[in-house]
Write a structure and sequence with these properties.
The chain is α+β, with helices and mostly antiparallel strands. The chain has 3 helices and 6 strands.
Length: 122
Protein backbone atom coordinates (compact mmCIF):
# COMPACT_ATOMS: atom_id res chain seq x y z
CA UNK A 1 0.00 0.00 0.00
CA UNK A 2 1.33 3.44 -0.82
CA UNK A 3 0.46 6.97 0.17
CA UNK A 4 -2.40 8.33 -1.90
CA UNK A 5 -1.58 11.53 -3.78
CA UNK A 6 -2.73 14.22 -1.39
CA UNK A 7 -2.25 17.88 -2.20
CA UNK A 8 -2.44 20.68 0.35
CA UNK A 9 -2.08 24.42 0.01
CA UNK A 10 1.64 23.94 0.79
CA UNK A 11 2.43 21.07 -1.52
CA UNK A 12 2.11 17.32 -1.97
CA UNK A 13 2.10 15.09 1.10
CA UNK A 14 5.30 13.03 1.24
CA UNK A 15 4.61 11.26 4.52
CA UNK A 16 3.16 11.39 8.02
CA UNK A 17 4.43 10.30 11.42
CA UNK A 18 3.35 10.21 15.00
CA UNK A 19 5.75 9.83 17.91
CA UNK A 20 6.29 10.79 21.53
CA UNK A 21 8.44 13.85 22.10
CA UNK A 22 10.09 14.58 25.45
CA UNK A 23 11.85 17.67 26.66
CA UNK A 24 13.29 18.55 30.05
CA UNK A 25 12.61 21.75 31.89
CA UNK A 26 11.93 21.40 35.61
CA UNK A 27 10.80 17.88 34.87
CA UNK A 28 10.00 15.94 31.74
CA UNK A 29 7.06 16.83 29.54
CA UNK A 30 5.85 14.32 26.99
CA UNK A 31 3.74 15.27 24.01
CA UNK A 32 2.54 12.94 21.27
CA UNK A 33 3.40 14.73 18.04
CA UNK A 34 1.54 14.28 14.77
CA UNK A 35 3.66 15.33 11.83
CA UNK A 36 2.86 15.89 8.17
CA UNK A 37 5.74 16.09 5.67
CA UNK A 38 5.05 17.89 2.41
CA UNK A 39 7.15 18.67 -0.63
CA UNK A 40 6.95 21.58 -3.02
CA UNK A 41 9.48 22.84 -5.52
CA UNK A 42 12.11 20.31 -4.47
CA UNK A 43 12.07 21.37 -0.80
CA UNK A 44 10.37 19.79 2.20
CA UNK A 45 8.31 21.23 5.02
CA UNK A 46 7.60 19.20 8.14
CA UNK A 47 4.63 20.52 10.12
CA UNK A 48 3.85 19.55 13.71
CA UNK A 49 0.06 19.59 13.63
CA UNK A 50 -0.26 19.79 17.41
CA UNK A 51 1.77 22.96 17.82
CA UNK A 52 1.57 24.48 14.33
CA UNK A 53 5.37 24.56 14.11
CA UNK A 54 7.22 24.01 10.82
CA UNK A 55 10.66 22.81 9.86
CA UNK A 56 12.27 23.17 6.45
CA UNK A 57 14.96 21.31 4.55
CA UNK A 58 16.27 19.92 1.30
CA UNK A 59 15.42 16.39 2.52
CA UNK A 60 12.56 15.05 4.67
CA UNK A 61 15.06 14.30 7.43
CA UNK A 62 16.44 17.87 7.38
CA UNK A 63 12.94 19.29 7.57
CA UNK A 64 12.00 16.97 10.43
CA UNK A 65 15.16 17.79 12.40
CA UNK A 66 14.53 21.51 11.90
CA UNK A 67 10.95 21.08 13.14
CA UNK A 68 12.12 19.09 16.19
CA UNK A 69 14.58 21.84 17.16
CA UNK A 70 11.81 24.43 16.91
CA UNK A 71 9.40 22.26 18.93
CA UNK A 72 12.02 21.73 21.64
CA UNK A 73 12.73 25.47 21.82
CA UNK A 74 9.01 26.31 21.96
CA UNK A 75 8.28 23.76 24.70
CA UNK A 76 11.29 24.84 26.78
CA UNK A 77 10.32 28.52 26.51
CA UNK A 78 6.65 27.77 27.13
CA UNK A 79 7.28 25.93 30.41
CA UNK A 80 10.07 28.32 31.46
CA UNK A 81 7.99 31.49 31.08
CA UNK A 82 4.54 30.25 32.13
CA UNK A 83 3.15 28.32 35.06
CA UNK A 84 2.69 24.62 34.31
CA UNK A 85 -1.10 25.07 34.02
CA UNK A 86 -0.76 28.07 31.69
CA UNK A 87 1.90 26.28 29.62
CA UNK A 88 -0.40 23.30 29.01
CA UNK A 89 -3.31 25.67 28.28
CA UNK A 90 -1.14 27.43 25.71
CA UNK A 91 -0.35 24.11 24.02
CA UNK A 92 -4.04 23.17 24.05
CA UNK A 93 -4.97 26.52 22.46
CA UNK A 94 -2.55 25.87 19.59
CA UNK A 95 -4.42 22.65 18.90
CA UNK A 96 -7.64 24.51 18.12
CA UNK A 97 -8.64 24.08 14.56
CA UNK A 98 -8.52 26.80 11.95
CA UNK A 99 -8.96 26.24 8.21
CA UNK A 100 -5.30 25.45 7.50
CA UNK A 101 -4.94 23.15 10.48
CA UNK A 102 -8.11 21.30 9.47
CA UNK A 103 -6.67 20.85 5.96
CA UNK A 104 -3.46 19.34 7.40
CA UNK A 105 -5.29 17.04 9.85
CA UNK A 106 -7.50 15.80 7.00
CA UNK A 107 -4.37 15.02 4.94
CA UNK A 108 -2.77 13.28 7.95
CA UNK A 109 -5.81 11.05 8.40
CA UNK A 110 -5.94 10.21 4.68
CA UNK A 111 -2.37 8.91 4.99
CA UNK A 112 -3.27 7.18 8.27
CA UNK A 113 -6.29 5.47 6.69
CA UNK A 114 -4.06 4.24 3.87
CA UNK A 115 -1.92 2.56 6.55
CA UNK A 116 1.11 4.69 5.78
CA UNK A 117 1.68 6.68 8.98
CA UNK A 118 4.99 5.79 10.62
CA UNK A 119 4.42 5.27 14.32
CA UNK A 120 7.69 5.77 16.15
CA UNK A 121 8.10 4.34 19.67
CA UNK A 122 10.90 5.18 22.08
Amino acid sequence: MSIPEIKTSRGTVWGAKTYPFSTENNGIYDILLHVLIMTSGGEYVCTCLNLQIDGYGKTPEEAENDMKESVRYFIDQNFEKLSVDDAWRNIFDLHRIDETTREYWNAFFEVFNAGQVSIIKD
